[in-house]
Amino acid sequence: MKSRHKKLILVAIAVIALGAVAALVLNAFRSNLVFFFSPTQVAKGEAPHDRSFRIGGLVEEGSLRREKDGVTAHFRITDTAQTTSVTYTGLLPDLFKEGKGVVAEGRLNSDGVFVAQQVLAKHDENYMPPEAASALEQAQKAQKTIVAPK
Amino acid sequence: MKRFLIPLGIFVVLAGFLFAGLKLNPREVPSPLIGKPAPDFKLALLSDPAKQLSPADLRGKVWLFNVWASWCASCRQEHDLLLDLSRHGVVLIYGMDYKDQPGDAQAVLDRFGNPYVETVVDPDGRAGINYGVYGVPETYLIDKNGIIRYKHTGPLTGEVLEKKILPLVKELQQ
Amino acid sequence: MIPELGHFSLILALLLALVQGTLPLVGAARNIPAWVSVAKPAARAQFLFVAIAFGCLAYSFLTNDFSVVNVTRNSHSRLPEVYRFTATWGSHEGSMLLWTVTLALWTLAVTQFSRHLTDDMVARVVGVMGLVSFGLLLFLLVTSNPFLRMPMAMDGSDLNPLLQDPGMVVHPPILYMGYVGFSVAFAFAIAALLSGKLDASWARWSRPWTTAAWAFLTIGIMMGSWWAYYELGWGGWWFWDPVENASLMPWLVGTALIHSLAVTEKRGSFKAWTVFLAIGAFSLSLLGTFLVRSGVLSSVHAFATDPTRGLFILIFLVVVIGGSLLLFALRASHVGLGGRFALVSRESFLMVNNILLLTATGAVLLGTLYPLFLDALGLGKISVGPPYFNSVFVPLVTPLIFLSGIGPLARWKQVNVPELAHRLKWGFGGSVLVALLLPFTMGEWKPMVSLGCLLSLWIAVTVAISVRGRMRTGAGWSANFYGMHLAHLGVAVTVIGVTMVSTYQTERNVRMEVGDTVTVKGYTFRFDGAEDMEGPNYRGARGTLEVSRDGKPVSILRPEKRIYTASGMPFTESAIDYGFTRDLYTALGESLDGGAWSVRLFHKPFVVWIWIGSVLMALGGFLAITDRRYRASRKKGRAEA
Fold it and tell me: How far apart are CA C48 and CA C424, in angstroms?
């Protein structure tokens, strides 16, 4: 084999491999991005029904209810403007508390209830998950523009 | 050979992106509350739980509203500044003890000095939510009409006080 | 007094770092022997002062000096002594100081073990490390002074309970030994670019340092993974969380570097590429530490609250990474090509290995930084979860592992394909057959299990063939050779662990009343209730679970639910019965009515293999460093000089 041919083969292999890898990475990237929505956006119907996403805000006071099995929990996430009902089977994280910030990942079922596969709370008491904080800020902004100050 | 420049090129793009990100991330997170009336509350005083205070009682005054807690270390960092400020009597400072044990809060004030005219107690953080508190300390400047004019997240620094808050206080007091 | 002493030492260290980073470099370039000879004493003195500063901070923590902000924020008078010590690096400031100490330590090591190097080379290497250290010390002093004072506080706000664990005593220092260790390879690469001497002896000098750093990083990552497993209370061993990714990226590039250094040393090829990887590994270490420690990744708000810190970090990264890449662009073309090699040869296998590792790094980088960029640019919030990383990683790592079986058996320059095929055919056939049948012993056949078993068996078989081949030729002991194979075997062991636990693990979250029993994979757990308990700085409940199998007692597990008094933070302390083929993992959820608790009961087959494999990899690395060649080169180098 001539060295020119060898070089051509090498280049061809490299190009094909690179294309395959890029396709693999980008495809995985596209199909696995998890978007974030606030309860207000969910209430407006902006959140998808066919794929999972994250939702964040505060756990509404007095909304946490456990089923008899002890491991299924129902609660509501609020951004102070709207609330979304959430159900989760499993043990809630240590820092999960009513009135505290929370982020949940899962999908909406046909009744509009958010079925969480994962519930996250931060490892630090003083700070809210940034996603939850941002949901609250958004909601406040929205509220303040609707209710004009006198 | 040009191909050796590729990594540098990629890095320059990446760094440019990071710089843009840093710039776009504004220094003061603009609070949606600025220019809006201070959210109402009616909370018990730390000094006397039988008495209550609400922002409406302070109409006609310019005041700083400082959210703090005994468990918060950065609050102690700004404590001296607040004491200085209250000693000079430039502006009235009211505190809100956020998600705290009143006993602990009182102990901190007894030991380090009390810069506050009064401190209200928000044990479960409900009033704090309306103010969009998500990390203590936070400080709000409220004018004579009860409108929030400025918000600072994190411990106050001399720079912020001198450059932002005090000029604004002077302006508002006129 | 002591904190001021520490602060003062840091300033002195900064000045020394400046001397160490300038005079020797200029001296080497201009041929001024007096300036060149400054390198070693400056580096040693710098180490001394950085160590003093670190000692002062540790002392402030141990003596509960709550006039130091750092101590107040991260410690508590009732915190046990050992955790007061580890709290020294529990904060941003402290961990940056630990970074600097580690860098100074590696520099010290270079000055001690460099008798075989020319004075110019030592001056350049130490000089480059001095410049990096200067940047770090400046960063510490300007934006993150760990000795900042404030009015005396009554008590501290306690160390994050997650960090109050024996694992956290050793994990950060070892991880940093790895991260920072790549600075040596980086400094060698920059020194080589500066001097224009990029040859086999340069690669031979770099190799043991790179391998040592890599082995430390391997152990560090392994400990982090193990810590997350038992400490976070839900039994995962890898979360693809930004903090973990930050340590994985330099590891991947470091792995590529080790392999490409081998080619550069043995065959003189891949020179520019090797230099690029050395720059890349350290750049990713820097990027990783800073992104993690500045809090940028975990919370965008941390970036916004301290813009000076963020800006400083960026400028530092731009100077170090941008500067070295610029130097690379200017000088790499003069490096020259090495030996030629055929399409099928050990070189080409190693090239594919490098490409795959780098692609994996790129994929991790994309997944880690993309959400950050979108958020910083205000384009919305997204997250990239484990499914992305898993679906990218498995197809990239599979051919990589497969090739690591063939590579060591392939000849340099050109492979005789029929001969190689002949040597491997039985091994390959056997591996496939066993891999297809093995999953049945676990009760259920799954394609991914067969794939994982195939890869592991393949490595094991090829290692055996290779070792047997070497013994037949009568070649003697070679630490390098056996180190490599031990590390490859480690990969095989880890692959088994990962495959088994991700396919066959059983996780049950149940409500248990006192006396209830639940059976998971043949193990019966009986809940004997939970009682109140009190620790030094926490209170809580301790549950008792009796585990039995076929009526025979296996173990008694006591998971805890703690509330740390100072911070009020609740915390789950899991209880695990470790085993060679399975772990039994229990954790308490919440207290329910009437003494009942929600409880986690996990059966994790072969999970320890993940960490055993990592330890084998690291041991392989350490073994390879002892190779006589690296010591022999010292004598040879002296003879040449």
Answer: 54
Best mutation site among B129, B133, B153 for testing chain A: the one with the most A CBs within 10 Å? B129
Length of chain A: 150
In the structure encoding, which two tokens stand for residue A20, read together? 């395959």
Q: Is the pTM of this model over 0.90?
A: no
Dist. CA C254–CA C360, nearest whole Å: 12
Tell me the β-bridge partners of A8. Answer: none
Of the pLDDT bands very low, low, confident and very high (cuts 50, 70, 90), residue A137 is: low
Q: What is the DSSP letter of C147?
A: T
Q: Looking at the predicted complex, does its ipTM rise above 0.85?
A: no
Contact C497, C607 (CB under 8 A): yes
Contact A95 C567 (CB under 8 A): no
Calculated CA dihedral for residues C518, C523, C526, C532, nearest 10 degrees? -110
Pick from C215, C205, C201: nearest CA to C184: C205
- Token duo for residue B10: 């990629």
Which pair of structure tokens corresponds to residue B78? Answer: 């700004």
Low-confidence ranges of chain C (pLDDT < 50): 298-305, 633-641
Residue A6 is nearest to which of C343, C366, C587, comparing CB atoms? Answer: C343
| Alpha carbons C409 and C451: distance in angstroms, whole number | 22
Helices (H), C377-478: 386-406, 417-437, 447-472
Nearest to B55 by CA among B116, B109, B120: B120
Q: Do C366 and A70 count as a contact with CB atoms less than 8 A apart?
A: no
Nearest to C53 by CA among C146, C175, C180: C146
C chain contacts of residue A33, beta-carbon cutoff 8 Å: 382-384, 388
Q: How far is C374 from chain B (nearest CA, A)?
A: 9
Residue B6 has pLDDT above 90, yes or no: no
Judge whether A70 and C511 are in contact, CB under 8 Å. yes
- Alpha helix segments (H runs only) across C167-322: 167-195, 200-231, 242-267, 271-293, 300-305, 307-317
**Which amino acid is it at C402?**
F
Q: Is A142 exposed, middle or buried (0-12, 13-18, 19+ CB in 10 A)?
A: middle
**Across the interface, do B8 and C322 touch by the CB < 8 Å criterion?**
yes
> Is the Cβ pair A99, B37 closer than 8 Å?
no
**Cα distances (Å, whole numbers) of residue C278 to C187, C254, C271, C282:** 9, 8, 11, 7
